[in-house]
Hints:
The protein is of the alpha+beta class and about 120 residues long. It has two helices and four strands; from the N terminus they run βαβββα.
Amino acid sequence: MEIRIKTTNYEMPAATAAYLDEKIASLERLVHDEAARCEVEIGRGVGHSQQGDVWKAEIMVHQFGERFIAIAEEESVNAAIDIAKDEMLQQLRKGKDKNTSLVKRMGARLKRWARRGDIRSY
């Protein structure tokens, strides 16, 4: 999986980069497409100057022609990364379950068709 990291109004220290790499590694085990791309954008939230520090983390995964997006805004960079990662894991699992059920249904239809030899049986 190709990973692209972009920072906006923020210079990422090495500790945050290591933390981000650790969190993205947990996403890689659910992505089964070799040509998949993960784009991560981290930076300060715009328009929140009166509400203190607001950090934004956005994770976008492109795989099998689908695009999954998770956006989180929190008071710390690590918290925003955690919430965006959890949301992305949830979306990837849901997409995986959807694809798995489709494959199982199509397999069952083919099996019924092969047993009966009748195309109209599905």
